[in-house]
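Cont'd.
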Amino acid sequence: MLAKYTRLFFLSFFQTLKNRNALVGLSVFLITCLLIFDNLWKVIAIRIGQEGLNGSLLLWYIASNEWILVSVPQLHEEIEDEVKNGQFTYMLPRPISYLGACFSRGLGKLFANLIVLGIVTFGFAYWKTGVFPLHPLPFFLFLLIGFAVGALALLALILIGLSSFWIGQVAPLYSVWEKLYLTLGGLMIPLTIYPDWLQNVANATLFPILLGERSALLLDFSYHKWLCVSVKLGIWMAGICLLITMLYALGLKKIQHEGG
Amino acid sequence: MIHVDALVKNFTSTSFFRSKTSFSAIKAVSFSIQRGEKVAFIGPNGAGKSTTIKMLCGILYPTSGSIKVLGMTPWKERKALGYQIGTVFGQRTQLWYHLPPIETFDLLQKIYEIESKKYKKQLDTLIETFEIQSILHKKVRQLSLGERMRCEIVASLLHRPQILFLDEPTIGLDINAKLTIRRLLYQLSKEYGTTLFLTSHDTADIEQVCDRVIVLDQGSIILDSSLRELKKNYIKKKIIHLITEGQWVCFEHVGVKIVDRGEHHIKIEVNLHQTDIDTVIYHALKITGLKDITIEDPSMEEIIRTVYAG
């Protein structure tokens, strides 16, 4: 039963790896972003008088954020296309779940990106700083959670993609998502700079798990913190899966009434 | 194999201010299809062909009426039915664009849970039948439309479906590719007994592949007959070419209209309501110096146009 999804995963995984030009492009983009944000954070650190942020681990923290941010494939665009051009309906008669197929192929792409960009980004951080932030086991656990977080981001993009049943173009919605992701996730500036109420708002969303809170494990790792992030991650995943299922069912209902 | 009874499908569209408008895409359609039949399901744009196919595949459920495909209710047992039917949609693709067709075939083996030995055997047979050995490892984006369509059909047949739904399978193809696809479909149905349910705007698809025609117009069936019956009942005229030794020959007869005339030939249209073909031929043979005579049926396109016109 799972063989079909595994095959889809590997097909997408190896196809992404074969597309070397795209991976080189993403790597260059990632390194550029890394340098920009590294300098931005250094300036902010001086402005707010937290020179402590200016340490070598800062680059690792930003690298960890960028790693996820750049690796997650734009699955919402594919879903939007399939819904809008009707391809989606023609996939329904096959004995495979559309959502499962979407997730599997997205996951294949995501994992290929995470592996390649992980080597690039963390290799670059090590080369620039000369330090390795964690011992092997915690680092392995940190990477593991990175892959899970990528899957959560992918699920969120599926949710955005499915909204095309109603709003047609999902680009504006994605744009809002992206802005919230960067600001409430703690990439643009540290979450600690925000007023308390905004920090509370940010912590009530999934964005810190996707970026800041997870990346902070690199700076101050403990198994307890790792477990906390994992539990929150699990809760968000379950919640988004539920929303996806509901939205998908409503989308199918809409097709029944308005045609495919 | 397929049993459709009093099928109705209404769609509603909701405007920005929530006012709903409803329209009937399918109005009380009924038909049955037996195993191995090759049925052309035709009609003008917006007649409801695609909606019907979508309901037969389980994509849409009807507003009322019933459908049984291979004993299953499509929209309730869509996944189970998926293992038994194949679909080819001329304007859609199930092949991975950046990969060679063989990769998609291998993926479909997993999707349809085909046993390895059976898959290998079926694939080998299809590769030979559809002559795709040379393009099997070429990326799909590098294939011509005709080659791609051959691969699409192979992809739909890997799991040995009992019914193959084809929605405009020859759209956009050149004449040679069209001929190949038609020949292969005919061969497929003959050899494996696969039931074909085909929609097309190309009447040659109907003529060369199918043995039965269902004509749909504005959501209702206006004709359901065998191809032979259709021709018999709807051929209202015949075209006769006469080649003569004499120059500028004239031909006058009730129910006969001269369509074209040259120095040594004359083309006439015979209205079968006004006269019969035997009488016209009898008179034509009396022409002095008649060298050749050819009788033509009107094109299938013209016949279909007559059906649409009522």
